[in-house]
Write a structure and sequence with these properties.
- There is one protein chain.
- The protein has about 625 residues and is of the alpha/beta class.
- The protein has 24 helices and 23 strands.
Length: about 625
Amino acid sequence: MKLTMAQALVKFLDNQYVSFDGEETKFVKGIFGIFGHGCVVGIGQALEQGGHDLTYYQGHNEQGMAHAAIAFAKQSDRRQIIACTSSIGPGALNMVTACGTATANRIPLLVLPGDTFACRQPDPVLQQIEQPTSYATTANDAFKAVCKYWDRIERPEQLMTACLNAMRVLTDWAETGAVCLAMPQDVEGEAYDYPEYFFQKRVWYLDRRPATRREIDAAAELIDNAKKPLMIVGGGVTYSGAWQAAQYFAERFNIPIGETQAGKGQIPWDCPLNLSGIGVTGGAAANAIAKQADLIIAIGTRLTDFTTCSKWGFNPDAKILSINVSSFDAFKMDAVSVIADAKMALLDLSAALSQKYYRSGWADEFAEAKAAYVAEMDACYSAELKEGLSQTRALGEINKRIAPDAIALGSSGSLPGCMQRLWRCTQPKTYHMEYGFSCMGYEICGALGAKLAAPDKEVYAMVGDGSFLMLHSELYTSIQEGVKINVMLFDNTGWGCIENLQNSQGTDTFGTRFTARNPITGLLDGEIVPIDFAKCAEGYGCKTYTATNIDELIYAIEDSKKQTVSTLIDIKVAHGSMSHGYDSWWRVGVAEVSTSEKVQAAYEDMAENIAKAREY
């Protein structure tokens, strides 16, 4: 079948399917693209020519469209993707950050950046980076550090091995992440006689990996010897669809639960065993119980510094049991590992522990911790300030008033902390947090992707003013596509989360408020520069609101439900009114020497906590 490389690529992607638990899904829904030289007459021509069922989506920032693709795959439980194509040079490099986001979060993302000419005849072309040390190096080599598979297709027949390897990684539960197929613009248009079998329907099986008998026996013995175990529910529970198995396991054996950002929302917040978020952005209940637990059962989590409080948050004598499809993650913190699908491992463990008649030795400790923390949550959600609107109160009103099946989405700033601690989920798949990379600018783009994956659900992007300023181009795409998203913009006049970190480590506020240049001091310590975010979104065609008090916020939330276009509520919250940490610690590089006594004290505090933390 004589086709150009780009035509063959489109035809191949159009015929890829995945099968999970017997349910077959078309894997590639469509392609996001911003056309320029390097892709417009190659893959752009192939898409325009037709003969395929891929939907073309027009992006407006390459990073933004790739983040939308990540959110689409995440909300689809990694069983369907939207690929992304760009021109060469700056267009391609704009996707590097998104590839880092995908790989850090273990989300499949296929990027197809245009590349310079393989023949090199017209070099240097517009937007080409030349390296005198290697003419083979192009801008697309930058993707290697952030991708799980990288290839450059320098001859049209190379497409076949490149595509098969790309799909191998994209459909691997343990090894998935960003995949880059760099496409020299001349090769995109070159033809080759491809074998027809290359384009036949191909099904990739997302099989559940069972645990071995030895792994189950070792894990069951470890739990049986534990008096006070604590479960940590991570993203692996989400993607495995294991929330019912996890809740049954916890209830059957009386084991309390702490949630990571990726695992939050799978088990209802009001389940008596669910202590809510754990770690740096977690709450008082889970963090207190983690200090008492003698065994941590980590299910589908990477055990990041935020989950473990930089390896400081657990009882120092506690053992670690890790259930994960990735051996790389399963062995972290010297854990006893079960390398398996979360659902299958939990069911097998349930059977093994039932034969041992196991039940934990917890009495009323975690119930009392939860009751106290629920009261704290209520206080945060009803906080009244003398001046201004509290961020936690605003979040509480949103949580209370949106539909139970609505998707709440976030990524960066202080909002992920408030949400992991306080957000109350009653249904699974309604909490969508990108916190593996915590990439500012993900929120609005992610809301678009989540809405494309779940068109029957309302999607609410929780975004700070700083993150909105970084990237909101795909708000226009939502208008263009007629896809309604809701942006809840919390304007606290700066990067409040980082200012908190700065101040907590002894440094006075510097460079973290959105202030004007002071003509007297020459520093950015002048008056706050106000921004009318509602007017910004109105220019895109959104229905917008501004809320400075609770009554205005309630009206905006309720009225936005009636709209058919994307909405934005510009919520003016009081500076510093977010939630605080609850008995947690995060290791950051505090200055070892300083003229400030406050910084010196912070360094001493860090050194003390390092001494208490695990070293592995």
